[in-house]
Amino acid sequence: MRMGEETGRKGLRPGGRSARVQAAVHAAVRDLLAERERGEISVPLVAARAGVTPSTIYRRWGDLQDLLADVALEQMRPDTDPAETGTLRGDLIAWVDQYREEMSSAPGTAMIRDVLASLEGSDPARQCCAISQAQLSVIFARAAARGEAVPDLDLATDLCIAPVVYRILFTDRPMDGDYVRTLVDRLLMSLRP
Amino acid sequence: MRMGEETGRKGLRPGGRSARVQAAVHAAVRDLLAERERGEISVPLVAARAGVTPSTIYRRWGDLQDLLADVALEQMRPDTDPAETGTLRGDLIAWVDQYREEMSSAPGTAMIRDVLASLEGSDPARQCCAISQAQLSVIFARAAARGEAVPDLDLATDLCIAPVVYRILFTDRPMDGDYVRTLVDRLLMSLRP
């Protein structure tokens, strides 16, 4: 599932010059984010670490916020399909709970904020939603193959993803596994006649 | 309900020097946002327009993002209580629909993004949520006074506010009055035995 520097996101040829530049710049950003305060990071600093010129970065990514959003999206892309538990409910609880845990963490929250801070285009935010919905779709396809009824993808987004993201961004309300089960059961109730 | 330059947010004495500076700086930001691209706005530009020194702004608001978040919050504070329709369902639909419409607009979406972009503290985002919840609380108190059952405030936030904000920030999914009615009816279903 993981795409990006390795497999040619944006149609880059893996191993080509362009892909190598992307890999070096992304790695430089990840390293710098681990070492420094976010406010200290700049395009010249990333360029120096990656061994490219600043103009290479400006040309390819626009400004620093767009680059940070690109790196955050890359990190949000899951390495694997959602865990398989044998039931729709089990798969959903496992996935939403992992999503809640990852996105509530300091790096996870920073990723969401980076995605949203790319002001010039809302494209990174759209991709962020698409990544989550692709995972839910895998879960739903499995359930359908087992003969289970599956909910609507937009409804699942409204009931299971939106509340988690809103709580992270706008509130201090804690979320735990019980909360996630409540969200999932509310969604599954919509399937009852 | 409206607080701010007029009534002394942060405990400012209305009409005092500090309140006048705040009013002038907020007005300068609103004017500049109406005239220019967001990326062209800077602290020195705001200071010149407001007739204060840049250091006054840095001292009081921190950086530009924090100032923009403060102005956005000020604009989010409603001037009036939610419209009164005579029923909980009617009040909720009217309020959520107005929230959806205002926040989906270009200035509304820019306000939400400004609130979130104040990276150094999550306080503006918490206040943004508190403003919405205060409005819902007014609606719920009215309903309770009429003898109607009222839902939990956190549940109302999860079911009626979170999906609207998530769709605005992360998707291109359109929302209309029918969508709002669906959200409100889902919340009211939770009150049924």
UniProtKB/TrEMBL annotation, chains A, B:
Domain HTH tetR-type per the UniProt entry, residue ranges = 19-79
Q: Which Pfam family, an example, fits this chain? A: TetR_N
A molecular function annotated in GO for this UniProt entry is: transcription cis-regulatory region binding
Q: Which UniProt keywords apply?
A: DNA-binding, Transcription, Transcription regulation
> What superkingdom does the record give?
Bacteria
**Binding region for DNA:** 42-61
- Show the SUPFAM superfamilies listed in the entry: Homeodomain-like, Tetracyclin repressor-like, C-terminal domain
Q: Which PANTHER family match?
A: HTH-TYPE TRANSCRIPTIONAL REGULATOR RUTR, TETR-FAMILY TRANSCRIPTIONAL REGULATOR
> What is the recorded name of this protein?
Transcriptional regulator
Q: Which gene encodes it?
A: tetR
